[in-house]
Amino acid sequence: MSQEAAGAWDIEWILSMLPHRYPFLLVDRVLEIEPAKRIVALKNVTVNEPFFNGHFPQRRVMPGVLLIEGMAQAGGLLLLKDLPDRENKLLFFMGIESAKFRRPVIPGDQVRFEIEVLRLRTSHCKLAGKALVDGQVAAEAVISSAMVDR
């Protein structure tokens, strides 16, 4: 059964799509994709994450900027999935709007990234993203990116 037929896209597929690697790869699995519309992806947060050593040792909290980065990576998977020459392309942040942080993300949490396309052009896009834990919004933002040649 293919990954798409199974309804989940695993870490091997993610690694084939994104240039990110440890410690900056922030998506572990994709659950749903509606091409050019939306994606749902997961990040399992463990106490072994390198950022917890300094943020903060007495009360470990995942940095909010990494939640935004996770949204962007999930959005990148959505945008690159059906692109025929994706190995020759990179996505760069162009803007972050309306970012809000609602609750801390701590070791043991599973972050669910829900991303929707607001506007899609050949070389630019705007996405609305949410990072949820146990159904509660931890962070949300509107992110813009540009696709460039590698």
> Helix segment count?
3
This entry's quaternary arrangement is single chain
Order of helices and strands: HHEEHEEEE
Structural class: alpha+beta
CATH topology descriptor? Thiol Ester Dehydrase, Chain A
Euclidean distance between termini CA atoms: 33 Å
Name of the CATH homologous superfamily? Hotdog Thioesterase
Any guess at the CATH architecture? Answer: Roll
Strand arrangement, major sheet: 1-2-4-5-6-3
pLDDT < 50 stretches: none
Computed CA radius of gyration, to the nearest angstrom? 15 Å
Portion of residues within helices: 10-25%
Name of the CATH first level: Alpha Beta
Strand content: 35-45%
How would you state the average pLDDT, rounded?
94
Largest sheet: 6 strands, antiparallel
In total, the number of strands is: 6
Q: Name the shape in a single word.
A: globular
How would you sum up this structure, described in words?
The chain is an alpha+beta fold. It has a single domain (3-149), classed as Hotdog Thioesterase (Thiol Ester Dehydrase, Chain A), CATH 3.10.129. Helices cover 19% and strands 41% of the residues. It has a six-stranded antiparallel β-sheet, covered by helices on one side. A hairpin with a 3-residue loop joins strand 1 and strand 2 (38-44).
List keywords for this structure.
150 residues; alpha+beta; Thiol Ester Dehydrase, Chain A; 6-stranded antiparallel sheet; 3 helices; 19% helix
Outline of the structure:
The chain has helices spanning 3-6, 11-17, 64-80, and strands spanning 29-34, 38-44, 89-101, 110-120, 124-133, 136-149.
